[in-house]
Amino acid sequence: MNSAETQCDMRSLTVLGIETSCDETAAAVVRGPASPEILSNVIRSQIDEHTEFGGVVPEIAARAHIEVLDRIVAEALAEANCSFDEIDAVAATAGPGLIGGVIVGLMTAKAIAMAAGKPLIAVNHLEGHALTARLTDDLDFPFLLLLVSGGHSQFLMVRGIGDYERLGTTIDDAIGEAFDKTAKLLGLPYPGGPAVEQMARKGDPNRFRLPRPLLDRPGLDMSFAGLKTALRTQAQKLEPVDDQTVADLCAAFQKAVAGVLSARTRTALELFRERYPDIQPAIVVAGGVAANQEIRSALTEAAEQAGARFVAPPMRLCTDNAAMIAWAGIERLRLGPVDDMGLSPRPRWPLDQISGSVLGSGKKGAKV
Ligand code: KG4
Ligand code: ZN
């Protein structure tokens, strides 16, 4: 522990967070853990730079982070009315994510920490998502997390800080990725999720019957690649597809995804009850796909039926942001030792191995 940390008042820590693991450049200042307060939360999306490619291009993402990160950090500090001297630590995403972007954020954080003489906290991006509900809803451990974004689709049991169990994950595409690929296939713009949802409103979800992959198997794993292929087959049979057919396919796709998620959510809640019979289950949803109204209502219903609490943090904190990284930094900082300057960025970093080495973790790593 260095001297800056020992001087901190652990009831009130002010942490600068930096997030650059995908296509959002973000910086935020958060104070807590008692009566947590988001003093600033600046997010710059790179969507416009990636739209023409129909997905995030890692090299473009890394360059865009470099171009704007120092300005975003300055903005976050100014909005929080804070100088480098007034923060207690710098927290940055150290993985998992697109490595170029992670390097930019982590190296910037190291430079600030070194220059300002503050501790550095390397945060696992997924831990940021996992702990957000404690910032917004004061949620106690344990609880379930369903993370559904462009890069991740997983159920986690959040048992404590640094104590996570991955209960199930997609075995192929992440859900947001499946939405994006489906949109591309149907000629809809990127990002695909909002476009598919909008088309689905005009569609008949029952005209096409799409599979519910893996639901015949126990456990909490999911699969979305087959769904997308089934949709492609249906679309190819009817080529050229008219607008109504596109809408009907979107509605069928969305219904199938919502069906898979609500079935798996019911199973996850049963598992929670078995493990913790005396605790009311809570399920938190995070990630961009959580913006989808049909998915949200399917999850709300599944939670209600199971007598569980359903927590959906506001969208700005549900999708990638730096407030969640700063908050995870606060939660970690109050527990003790901080990270040393020698640590490396980790493109793959499964949350259930948070305290272990992840070098060489195989093909199916943390991105899912
Ligand atoms: O969490 P997020 O902003 O970024 C990461 O992937 O980390 O999630 C973006 C993903 C994209 O794949 C996008 O298509 C999807 O979330 N998404 C949606 C909706 N809004 C965004 N998927 C379904 N329905 C939506 N309304
Ligand atoms: Zn994320």
From TrEMBL:
Pfam families attached to this UniProt entry: TsaD
EC class of the enzyme, as a word: transferase
InterPro entries: ATPase_NBD, Gcp-like_dom, KAE1/TsaD, TsaD
Protein localization: Cytoplasm
Primary subcellular site in the record, as a coarse category: cytoplasm
Gene Ontology CC: cytoplasm
Limits of the Gcp-like domain: 37-327
Superkingdom: Bacteria
Transferase keyword on record: yes
Catalyses which reaction(s): L-threonylcarbamoyladenylate + adenosine(37) in tRNA = N(6)-L-threonylcarbamoyladenosine(37) in tRNA + AMP + H(+)
One GO MF term attached to the UniProt entry: iron ion binding
Gene Ontology BP, a term: tRNA threonylcarbamoyladenosine modification
Sites where the protein binds substrate: 147-151, 180, 193, 197, 292
Residue positions binding Fe cation: 125, 129, 320
Similarity annotation: Belongs to the KAE1 / TsaD family.
Name of the protein: tRNA N6-adenosine threonylcarbamoyltransferase
Species the sequence originates in: Roseibium suaedae
